[in-house]
């Protein structure tokens, strides 16, 4: 990646042979690059990294985190990258705590057949990201970020909330089509509150269309606080693993069940990656 020029207009493809790659991976300002593994199970990129081991920088005068990015706790980070593709590999952190396996920042990035394993925030996506046939395993806030992100035919596992969405009115949040949500404990909910420690995200958007789920709390969504006037926690046609309709009678009152007739245009639009992302994944 260091060899490839920053902001390249020429296309590059890097083939990664099966192997165990124990290393921190960080690169930035890369464009039009495909990283393709020999196989998802055979290419394993990992490192023991987390928030305690590699904390955010702090203001030395106030001892407070100034909110600068990117986070330094991820095992694999692609910072300010555009038109990147990652295919056929496993990316993971091997430490518990707040630690992404993968952090992606940039626009028009594409993940296919990638297995991401983290503790806490397994995947952080800041910028438009398309994911196809991926698996994401985490302990809570498993998908974190500002979006927009479109998940197609993906599997997600989480012990706590599957996501904490922090999008603003400027873009969509997280949209899942034909995905599977597998709760790994008693506290698995689809998303947690849009407000946290005084920080509010009133435009938080999570839309699930024709997804399967197992071991999700009956209320579906975690407690919701803060400004909820623009919140979008929407579901359509949620099913059990056996294909039966999920009992949504106890869903959080601020969430919404979409109707095939009343909301057919919404369902059509949100099933289209181009509508959500602002570009068409090829």
Could you characterize what this model shows?
The protein has 282 residues and is mainly β. It is 4% helix and 40% strand. It has two helices and 22 strands. The protein has a 20-stranded parallel beta sheet that branches. Strand 17 and strand 18 (199-200) form a beta hairpin. The longest helix is centred in the last third of the chain and has 7 residues, at 264-270. The chain starts with 11 loop residues before the first strand and ends in a 5-residue tail after the last helix.
- Strand-residue proportion: 35-45%
User: Roughly how many Å is the radius of gyration?
Assistant: 18 Å
| Residue runs with pLDDT of under 50 for 5 or more positions | none
| Sheet with the most strands, sense and barrel status | 20 strands, parallel
Task: Give the end-to-end Cα distance, rounded to a whole number of Å.
Answer: 23 Å
Number of strands: 22
Task: Present the secondary structure layout.
Layout: E1 12-16, E2 19-22, E3 25-28, E4 33-37, E5 43-47, E6 76-82, E7 85-93, E8 102-107, E9 109-117, E10 123-132, E11 135-138, E12 143-152, E13 155-158, E14 163-165, E15 174-177, E16 180-183, E17 195-196, E18 199-200, E19 205-209, E20 212-214, E21 232-236, E22 256-257, H1 264-270, H2 273-277
Parallel strand pairs: 1-4, 2-5, 3-6, 4-7, 5-7, 6-8, 7-9, 8-10, 9-10, 9-11, 10-12, 11-13, 12-14, 12-15, 13-16, 15-19, 16-20, 19-21, 21-22
Antiparallel strand pairs: 17-18
List keywords for this structure.
22 strands, 282 residues, 40% strand, globular, single chain, 20-stranded parallel sheet
């Amino acid at each position: 990646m260091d060899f490839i020029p920053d902001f390249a207009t020429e296309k590059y493809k890097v083939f990664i042979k099966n192997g165990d790659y124990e290393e921190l991976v960080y690169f930035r300002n890369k464009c039009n690059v495909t990283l393709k593994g020999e196989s998802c199970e055979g290419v394993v990129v990992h490192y023991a990294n987390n928030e305690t081991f590699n904390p955010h920088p702090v203001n030395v005068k106030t001892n407070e985190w100034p909110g600068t990015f990117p986070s330094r706790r991820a095992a694999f980070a692609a910072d300010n990258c555009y038109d990147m593709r990652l295919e056929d590999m496993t990316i993971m952190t091997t430490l518990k705590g707040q630690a992404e396996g993968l952090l992606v920042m940039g626009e028009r990035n594409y993940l296919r057949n990638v297995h991401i394993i983290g503790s806490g925030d397994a995947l952080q996506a800041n910028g438009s990201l398309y994911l196809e046939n991926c698996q994401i395993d985490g302990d809570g806030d498993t998908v974190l970020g500002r979006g927009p992100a479109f998940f197609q035919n993906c599997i997600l596992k989480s012990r706590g909330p599957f996501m904490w969405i922090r999008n603003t009115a400027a873009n969509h949040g997280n949209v899942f089509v034909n995905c599977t949500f597998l709760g790994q404990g008693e506290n698995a909910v689809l998303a947690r509150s849009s407000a946290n420690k005084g920080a509010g995200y009133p435009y938080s958007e999570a839309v699930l269309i024709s997804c399967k789920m197992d071991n999700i709390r009956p209320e579906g969504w975690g407690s919701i606080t803060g400004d909820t006037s623009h919140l979008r926690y929407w579901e359509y046609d949620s099913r059990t693993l056996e294909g039966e309709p999920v009992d949504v009678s106890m869903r959080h009152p601020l969430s919404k069940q979409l109707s095939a007739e009343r909301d057919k245009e919404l369902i059509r639009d949100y099933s289209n990656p181009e509508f959500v992302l602002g570009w068409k994944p090829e």
